[in-house]
Amino acid sequence: MRKLVCAGNWKMHKTAREAADFVKIFLPLAQAVPDRVEIVLCPPFTALAAVSKLLTTGRVRLGAQDMHWERGGAFTGAISAPMLCDLGVHYVIVGHSERREYFGETDETVRLKTAAALQNELTPIVAVGETLAIRDTGKTADHVIAQTRAALEGLNAAQIARILLAYEPIWAIGTGRNCDPAQANAVMSAIRSCMPALNDVPILYGGSVKAENIAAYTAQPQIDGGLVGGASLDPIVFAQLCTAADAPRHGSVPDPARGPSTSSG
Ligand code: PGA
Q1: What's the CA-to-centroid distance between 122 and ligand 1, angstroms?
Q2: What single-letter DSSP state applies at residue 61?
Q3: Number of the ligand 1 atom closest to the C-alpha atom of 93
Q4: Taking CB atoms and a 6 Å cutoff, what residues make up the pocket around ligand 1?
Q5: What mean pLDDT is reported for the chain?
Q6: Cβ neighbours of residue 182 under 8 Å, at least 6 residues apart?
C-alpha cells in the first residue's frame, strides 16, 4: 500500500516565532495522529531553522516550498538543496502553480529541481495542475501528463519511485471551490497510467482541502493524501485534518452523501 501523506504548505505565512508557536501546539496533537500518516510541514525558508530545532522526534517531517537546482553560485535570493539538507529538511515542493505563475517556473526548471532534489536525498513533491481554461477544453489529463513527463524526464524507475506527486487543479487552490473527489481520482489515474514507475508513487490532492473534506479524497483509490495550504496554518485544524485523512483506509468511511466541504479559507 502506498503511504499516506499530509503536507502543510504555509506559503508566505508565519515568522520564525509564529512558526515555532505553531509547532509547540501541533506536536502533542500530532502524537494522536495514526502513525500511518506521514506529516510534513513546509514553512517559509526563514522559519525552517526554528521549526527544525523543534522537530526532534521525526514524527513530523520538514519540507521546503522551493529550491534552486544548483548547489551554489551567483543566484541572488536563491536557496540550494545542500542548504536545505543542512537544516534537516526532507521534502521540497517543486513546481507549485504559484511558482509557475508568479516566478517564471517552467517545465524545464521543474525538471532540473526535481533531479537536483533527488541527487541531494531530498524527496521532491512535484506539483502539477490545470487552469480552468484548460479544464473547460477537456484537456486536463493531457496537460498534467505532459507536466509530469517533463518533470521526470531523464530519471530512472528507481529515482521516480522516490518522488511524490501533487495534483492541484489551479482553480481549486485557495478558492474554496473543490474538485470533485471522483474527478480528481480520474485525473490521478491518468497520470499514474502514463508511466509504470508511478505505480507506487503517492499522489496528493491539493486545492481547498479541509479537515471536513480530506476523507472524501483519501477514500478514493488513487489519492494518497493532501497538499494543504490554508487549512495547515492552524495547528488544531491541521491535526484534525491529518487524523481524518486516515479514516477511509482504516474503517470509518465518510458518508458520501455529505460530499466535500465547499467552505473557503
Ligand atoms: P489551499 O492551497 O489548500 O489553500 O487551497 C493548496 C496549495 O496551494 O498547495
Answers
A1: 22
A2: E
A3: 9
A4: 9, 168, 173-174, 206-209, 227-231
A5: 94
A6: 220
Atom of ligand 1 nearest to the CA of 227: 9
* Ligand 1 geometric centre to CA of 223 (Å): 16
Nearest partner of 124 among 155, 82, 70, 164, judged by Cα: 164
Query: CA 26 to CA 20: how far, in whole Å?
Result: 10
Residue corresponding to grid cell 481549486? 172
Query: Taking Cα atoms as reference points, which of 87, 79, 70 lies closest to residue 16?
Result: 87
> What are the b/e assignments for 47-63, b being 16+ CB within 10 Å?
bbbbbbebbeeeebbbb
pLDDT of residue 178: 87
232/207 Cα distance (integer angstroms): 12
Task: Quick: pLDDT tens for 110-133.
Answer: 999 999 999 999 999 999 999 999
Question: What is this structure's pTM?
Answer: 0.94
114: Cα within 13 Å, side-chain hemisphere: 31
- Grid coordinates standing for 22? 505553531
Q: Cell 497510467 identifies what position?
A: 193
Which residues are 62's β-sheet partners?
Answer: 41
pLDDT band for 251, please (50, 70, 90 cuts). low
Q: Under DSSP, is residue 167 helix (H, G, I), strand (E, B) or coil?
A: strand
Q: How far is the CA of 174 from the centre of ligand 1 (A)?
A: 5
